[in-house]
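Journal club prep — side note

Before the paper discussion, L.F. wants everyone to see what a predicted structure for a comparable chain looks like in token form. Sequence:
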Amino acid sequence: MTFWTAHLSRDREPILLRDGFSWGALLFGPFWLLLHRAWIPATLSFVTFFVVAFRLPPTVTSVVIPALMLLHGLSGNDMLAWALERRGYLLAHVLAARTEADALARLLNNRPDLAGTFMPTASKR
């Protein structure tokens, strides 16, 4: 079972975030944060990587860069949740489901008032 957090904002569709480790954040770091519109964490990450890469000795850099990448993987989804909170979203539910579609179905089962306020991603195509 995977845990998902449902973030809600007035007149916007809910956003579901998978809780736990993020391979995208581990591999792509600040670029992954930019892709998900987490501007402040992405900027801080770029600055941190820049300082580490160009201001520290190479022996220290070879240890700190992998540690920063691991930190991104461990806390990437938390940084996204923080960015959503700054955009006006509130953490409304924590859901246990195998897939994002199952988590959305559970959210709509718990909150039937949300069913008419948005069109799920699969039916937008």
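L.F.'s comment for the group: The first strand starts at residue 2 and ends at 9. Keep this in mind when we get to the figures.
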